Amino acid sequence: MKNTLTSIFALILGFITVTFAAVIGLFIGLGALIARPFIKKKINAAYEEALKQQGYSQTHQQEQHGSTIDGEYEDITQSAPHGSKQSLA
After folding, report:
1. Alpha helices in 55-64 (DSSP H)
2. pLDDT tens-digit series, residues 5-60
3. CA angle 46, 68, 54 (to 5 degrees)
4. Which residues constitute the domain of residue 24?
5. What is the pLDDT of residues 1-17, one digit of tens each?
6. Is 21 domain-assigned?
7. Residues 51, 42: Cα–Cα separation, whole Å
């Protein structure tokens, strides 16, 4: 009888511990979701400040992140069929 009561008490205590950990985890996750936009705004402001201190302007930054590459290139879209075993070297 004593072992049965001890095991039931241990199961109840374990359930309470797991429930408490889950609730604390939910609070931490909710806090992170709430804080995320504020942290992003602060990081972006610090990044802009660092760019100003290094002498980069906003227009120079946009030029660096373009989607085209200047220079010569060879169009290979129609020259080899899909599944071709040709090497690119």
Report:
1. 58-64
2. 999 999 999 999 999 999 999 999 999 999 999 999 999 999 999 988 888 765 55
3. 25
4. 2-58
5. 889 999 999 999 999 99
6. yes
7. 14
